[in-house]
Here is the input.
Amino acid sequence: MMCGAKRLSAAPDLRRPITLSVLHDIIRALPFVCRSFYQQKLFSLMFLMAFHAFLRIGEITIRNKQENHNLIYLENLTLKNFDSGNPYLILKMSNFKHNLSKQPVQLQILSQVEPDFCPVKKMREFLELRGKAAGTLFCYRDTRPIQRSEFCNILTLALSSAKYDTKFYKSHSFRIGAATTAHMIGIPDSKIRTMGRWHSDSYNRKVQGHSTETKCDMQNKIVDCRHLNLTIIPSHLPIHAISIDLSRNSIQIVKGFTFQYFKNLTELNLGNNLIQSIDKNAFHELHRLQSLHLDHNFLQVLPIPMFDNLVCLQHLWIYHNKLQNHQIDQMKEMSKILSLRTIYFETYPDFKFPSKWSTLSNLTDLEIFPRSAKVQFSKEMFVHIKMMPIMSLHLDRVPSISDDFFEYFPKLDSISLWLGNDLPKNPIDQVFRSFGVLKSRNMTNIEIAYSRFVNGFTLNQNRLKYLWSICLKRLTLHDLYIKDILIYAMQVFSVRSTCLEYLEIANNILLDSGGSLITILQNFKNLKVLKITSNWRRSRRKRSQPSRLFSFVLPKTLEELYIEDNLAGDMVNINFINGHNLRVLSFKDSEIWSCECSFAGVLNVEYFDMSGWTCEKLSINLLYGFPNLKTLKASGSLQGHGFVNTAKAGSFLSKNRRLQDINPSSNRISTIPKGLSLR
Here is the structure.
């Protein structure tokens, strides 16, 4: 009775649900908060499974060594139909809270449409990294179970990075969000109770408590109604608003004349909802509207006159809907928006650009989202139109691309190609050959990213030769599973790429050449920024023999150098040659076992990041080579056991008199050496 009274008088539950939209946002944030490629894949999968399988925190993490009786093990998982077109997962749950009958329960986790947020695809990718060693399903590389504190810490960092208030979201928010989402899409309560393995109907309070929130945040003329589980558009919104964000809710219908009094509205976001129908007069009187988000909904058709009054519309997001059967009519309708500058849309097999798009003289940015692996980017798309004045082109998935595709974009300045992690064949050779028609062109940016794990490849001369003939300023290669970079090919590339100012190679699997790449840096004539980050190597955890001196020969023009989550070994003395223009230096998240080292040749560096270093003791002259240092980052490291020479520890920062910002948070510091900040 006393326990019941406590529950009745308890404070209200402030935890908010992690709905699908929140889930996607925090997964997108993981690359910015995780220290390694493995950790990113691990927590991405843990978040997805916690949501789609209604998992409790005690089923995926431990608090101490004794608390492991409810953990899910690798043997509890079965992969089904992975050789067919409809794969799914089976989780056999034998031990879980409230299982009074001790009977096992089987949970079926289905594939999701979006590959980046599909628990089935992510499980397969993770298992390729994890291996087949017995133990808990979610584990560190050495098969130890995941600590609850680390899971909660990564969740908090991801929420913060995605701009959510962390005090309202906890680990249990995944279960609340899963139940709330299931309730909103009409799944019967009895089925939700079974899916979540609830012993009572207590989950109903959480679901109902989070399905009626309607309070929008209104500041000045900006209205924010995100993440409120709205099913209809509120009627109390201020008509003087210039921006209204209704994204990430559960709105299903946009009725006619809903926004007719919002004369000053310039931005409207209805993305990430459940919208199936929009009335032809829904946007009536929005003559000043410039940006319209309709993406990530369930629209099958758009009313023909819907765009007629949007005379100022410049940016339109309409991808991730179900417009396949009316694609031609929709594309023709969009050609009426003469003010259009940017459009995000999806394509299906046999898509062709309509001839009326030749009237869109202001259209400069195009983002295409193929919804089928059979889409081919080729000249067949241009049967009705000869060329397009596009300057920036993004292809969200590249099943196939012809050698002459870019010929039809004579003004192209920026290309972003996300290959797709669900394609049966790797289109990487087609991609590099397609750059052949850009020979001798001046271009600002080329990005190639997001391939499939089994589609790893070697970056060789036959591929790089198509890039060095372009006067390219910025090149980014990330999440491609590059297995190796042939040094001779990169050496030729560095000599011939005379226009290159920015180079990033990140989140790949460089088996051997990660360090060798540094040896040819000096060949780049105009390089200003170099990023080599999170390129996992199988050999990187083997401790190397300490050397007395390691030299980096830099391009004379280099201003920023990032070698993060990519180094492993003992550092003694590091000498930078040609480092007089260097202003930013980051060795963040490196496995540095010995910090008895010093730096030379970096007199003008103003920002240094040593966060995440694994060495416990520091040399007192570690930072002597940075007399102009203004910002020092050293968070999340193992420092705190002291200095090599404790007698002179107070002089550690004696040469850095221009320091303005120091961040040594999340370390093991127990005492501060006397005189450390005196100067």
User: Anything to note?
Assistant: The first strand starts at residue 77 and ends at 80.
